[in-house]
Specification:
It holds the Pfam family Response_reg. This is DNA-binding response regulator. It comes from Bradyrhizobium canariense. The protein is built from 8 helices and 12 strands. The chain has 2 domains: about 1-120, Rossmann fold, CATH 3.40.50.2300; about 125-220, Winged helix-like DNA-binding domain superfamily/Winged helix DNA-binding domain (Arc Repressor Mutant, subunit A, Orthogonal Bundle). A hairpin with a 4-residue loop joins strand 7 (about 130-135) and strand 8. The chain has a 5-stranded parallel β-sheet with strand order 2-1-3-4-5, sandwiched between helices. Strands 6-7-8-9 form a 4-stranded antiparallel β-sheet, with helices on one face. It has a 3-stranded antiparallel β-sheet with strand order 10-12-11. By secondary structure, it is α/β, with parallel strands linked by helices.
Length: about 220
């Protein structure tokens, strides 16, 4: 899953990005409103975290452009502006959530998880795919009731495949959701991480099938 942070405060953006990466998200950062409005429409983001006070185009302007283009990506406004009028404006423009700074980081985490679930049409925090169970609230995946030990990238790959179980996920889509803009990606990255996940699923887990020329499919009986 991939998240875009649009934030003028570089230190704040880096801190949030590192926290989200630890939760298995790929993260991109934009600090300029004009470029953020373009970037938001180019990639398959699961969530956009948007400040209001941005150079060139305000956060409200970015949100207006996103919704005007027909994008339904969940948007959380994260800002120091807490006046009721600002909240009303943000929500009326199509924001899904509004969180004022300073904020409790545990509440931020919970809101992120809820918005990502909502955007994928998965209100239930637990996603079941055969013997696999992904508890989004706890951030864990179990296989037949046993915790599955996965590194961050492996976790992200399996999450993408689970949310699209029974459907082919292209290599390009997999890479786009697992890696951020600023991360170096090896040509065989998709094959490498899918191979590692296959090993950890072993004979008891569902099969990840390679669909030649198209991508990967998590088979669920």
């Amino acid at each position: 899953m991939r998240i875009l942070i649009v934030e003028d405060d570089a230190a704040m953006a880096r801190g949030l990005a590192e926290r989200l990466k630890l939760s298995g998200f790929a993260v991109d950062i934009e600090s300029d409103g004009a470029s953020a409005a373009q970037t938001a429409l180019l990639e398959p983001y699961s969530l956009i975290i948007l400040d209001i006070n941005l150079p060139n185009v305000s956060g409200f302007g970015v949100l207006h452009k996103i919704r005007q283009a027909g994008s339904t990506v969940p948007v959380m406004i994260l800002t120091a502006r807490y006046a009721t009028g600002d909240k009303v404006s943000g929500l009326d423009l199509g924001a899904d959530d509004y969180l004022s700074k300073p904020f409790d980081i545990a509440e931020f985490d919970a809101r992120v998880r809820a918005l990502v679930r909502r955007g994928q049409g998965l209100p239930n925090p637990t996603l079941i795919c055969g013997p696999l169970a992904f508890d989004r609230a706890a951030g864990t995946i179990t296989l037949s009731g046993r915790p599955l030990e996965l590194r961050r990238r492996e976790f992200a790959v399996l999450e993408v495949l689970m949310t699209r179980a029974g459907k082919v996920v292209s290599k390009e889509r997999l890479i786009a959701e697992v890696f951020g803009f600023d991360e170096a990606v090896a040509p065989n990255a998709a094959e490498l991480y899918v191979g590692r996940v296959r090993q950890k699923l072993g004979p008891d887990g569902p099969r990840i099938r390679t669909v030649r020329g198209l991508g990967y499919l998590l088979e669920v009986q």
